């Protein structure tokens, strides 16, 4: 088989959202899996709705997600230009080609594709009637994801509008032909266009590519399709929220595809190795922001400590959680217990600020939780303090102190955890408490607990 050539063909008419990114990604994965080429083509024929700003968001998000293209904007390639707005001459030429073959005709200023034989229904004598359903065999499409799909075009359709602008179906197919596209991987919303596209390929006398229509992405909380307006829909939002691009990309891979052994958080090289169109699900995928966060947290946890520190330090400096005087060693100690618990780098400042200042904020929700069931957190800390003061400052010794005080007061050791955590950090959650005490150190921990208990 000839080399696989796939393309992502966005129209820059809106922000780059999860659905588009996932379509781009499945094309990219397939190209990389097959050792083929990934082409980026900008379908910007709609002058009214296109914008340079949207184009830049697409390019920027694709680069951020590490989806490099082999041909396209900024890369060039043998079949350029890769902007449809710059290919008008070609479209006119290709229209003439169809007209010369008798497969396109003009009517009311627009150009129509003439379907083959008896199926053509827009001849002059028929125009004034309603189109009746034509008894012609449906076209059978062997979709790589959907399997066998039957569709029929039963009437001629417009390929060039009376204002001289080519129609989406026409430019899409002309470019797929010119760019030697072997596989069209796109959202299921385009399935209904495919019979038109196949008719066009046939009219040009070209074998159509293989199609793979990938499932829709449903919004997290309802039956509908995810839209650009839904919470969590835009890629740039994850960029802003300091998600790791490899984690976002990893999560997108899971929207309609599952790794063979069920291990979902994995390096991109492994995904590329495993990915195949045949295993893309037929059923719709549901967007789940919690799962996205989970994948991000897992990916953070898997980073080498030095890499995590290199990501964290500039954020902590910028948010003034630390200043340049904090040593790598001290930072590494704190990050060592934070890394396995933090969900996103965005949360680092609030998550670990208390290690570097006693002047931390008290979380109101955490405070309310402490006293919810009539608990008295200050009393708990008072009960515990003498034992902590007497303890050696190691995790096992501290754990023993909690246990002893619990036993003496007929309480669980964990009854003391939340009050202590709140007393030293003002938070309701965070890294493992005994580790926090160890890394915060004896003097600082006891001073904060005494202040809280007084
Ligand atoms: N410009 C079309 C879109 O954004 C491309 C469709 C296709 O991939 O064929 O939906």
List keywords for this structure.
454 residues; mainly alpha; Rossmann fold; binds glutamic acid
Layout of helices and strands, plus pairs?
Layout: E1 5-8, H1 18-34, E2 37-40, H2 52-64, H3 88-100, E3 104-107, E4 110-113, H4 124-127, E5 139-143, E6 147-151, E7 157-160, H5 168-178, E8 183-187, H6 194-203, E9 210-214, E10 217-218, H7 235-240, H8 245-253, H9 268-274, E11 285-286, H10 289-302, H11 305-318, H12 328-338, H13 348-352, H14 364-371, H15 377-390, H16 395-408, H17 417-425, H18 433-440, H19 442-453
Parallel strand pairs: 1-2, 8-9, 10-11
Antiparallel strand pairs: 3-4, 4-7, 5-6
Bound molecules: glutamic acid (GLU).
Glutamic acid is lined by residues 9-11, 43, 172, 184, 186, 190.
Q: Could you characterize the architecture of this molecule?
A:
- The chain is mainly alpha-helical and 454 residues long.
- The chain has four domains: 1-86 and 215-302, HUPs (Rossmann fold), CATH 3.40.50; 87-214, Rossmann fold (3-Layer(aba) Sandwich); 304-355; 364-453, Arc Repressor Mutant, subunit A, CATH 1.10.10.350.
- 44% of the residues lie in helices and 10% in strands.
- The protein contains 19 helices and eleven strands.
- The chain has helices spanning 18-34, 52-64, 88-100, 124-127, 168-178, 194-203, 235-240, 245-253, 268-274, 289-302, 305-318, 328-338, 348-352, 364-371, 377-390, 395-408, 417-425, 433-440, 442-453, and strands spanning 5-8, 37-40, 104-107, 110-113, 139-143, 147-151, 157-160, 183-187, 210-214, 217-218, 285-286.
- The strands form five sheets. The protein has a three-stranded antiparallel beta sheet with strand order 3-4-7. The chain has a two-stranded parallel sheet with strand order 1-2.
- A hairpin with a 2-residue loop joins strand 3 (104-107) and strand 4 (110-113).
- The longest helix has 17 residues, at 18-34.
- It is elongated.
- The N and C termini lie far apart (78 Å).
């Amino acid at each position: 088989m000839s080399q696989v050539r796939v393309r992502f063909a966005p129209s820059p008419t809106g922000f780059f959202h999860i659905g588009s990114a996932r379509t781009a990604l499945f094309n990219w994965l397939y190209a990389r899996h097959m050792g083929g080429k990934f082409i980026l083509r900008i379908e910007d024929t709609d002058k009214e709705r296109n914008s340079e700003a949207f184009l830049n968001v697409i390019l920027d998000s694709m680069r951020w997600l590490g989806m490099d293209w082999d041909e396209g904007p900024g890369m060039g390639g043998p079949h350029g230009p890769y902007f449809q707005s710059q290919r008008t001459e070609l479209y006119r030429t290709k229209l003439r080609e169809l007209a010369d073959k008798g497969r396109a005709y003009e009517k009311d200023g627009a150009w129509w594709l003439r379907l083959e034989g008896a199926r053509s229904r827009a001849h002059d004598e028929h125009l004034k009637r309603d189109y009746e359903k034509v008894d012609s065999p449906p076209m059978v499409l062997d979709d790589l994801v959907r399997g066998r799909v039957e569709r029929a075009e039963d009437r001629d359709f417009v390929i060039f509008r009376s204002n001289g602008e080519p129609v989406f179906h026409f430019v899409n197919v002309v470019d797929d032909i010119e760019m030697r596209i072997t596989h069209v991987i796109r959202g299921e919303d385009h399935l209904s266009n495919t019979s038109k596209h196949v008719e066009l390929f046939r009219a040009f006398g070209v074998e159509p590519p293989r199609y793979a229509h990938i499932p829709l992405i449903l919004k997290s909380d309802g039956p509908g399709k995810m839209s650009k307006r839904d919470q969590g829909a835009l890629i740039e939002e994850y960029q802003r929220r300091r998600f790791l691009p490899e984690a976002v990309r990893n999560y997108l891979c899971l929207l309609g595809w599952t790794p063979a052994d069920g291990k979902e958080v994995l390096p991109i090289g492994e995904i590329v190795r495993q990915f195949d169109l045949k295993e893309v699900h037929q059923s719709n995928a549901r967007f789940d922001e919690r799962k996205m966060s989970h994948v991000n947290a897992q990916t953070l946890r898997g980073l080498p400590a030095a890499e995590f520190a290199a990501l964290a330090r500039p954020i902590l400096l910028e948010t003034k959680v630390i200043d340049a005087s904090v040593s790598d060693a001290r930072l590494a100690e704190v990050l060592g217990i934070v890394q396995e618990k933090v969900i996103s780098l965005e949360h680092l400042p609030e998550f670990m600020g208390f290690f570097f200042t006693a002047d931390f904020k008290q979380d109101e929700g955490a405070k309310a939780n402490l006293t919810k069931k009539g608990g008295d957190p200050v009393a708990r800390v008072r009960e515990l303090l003498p034992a902590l003061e007497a303890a050696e400052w190691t995790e096992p010794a501290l754990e023993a102190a909690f246990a002893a005080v619990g036993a003496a007061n007929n309480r669980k050791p964990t009854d003391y955890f939340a009050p202590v955590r709140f007393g030293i950090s003002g938070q309701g959650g965070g890294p493992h408490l005994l580790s926090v005490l160890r890394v915060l150190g004896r003097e600082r921990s006891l001073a904060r607990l005494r202040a809280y208990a007084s």
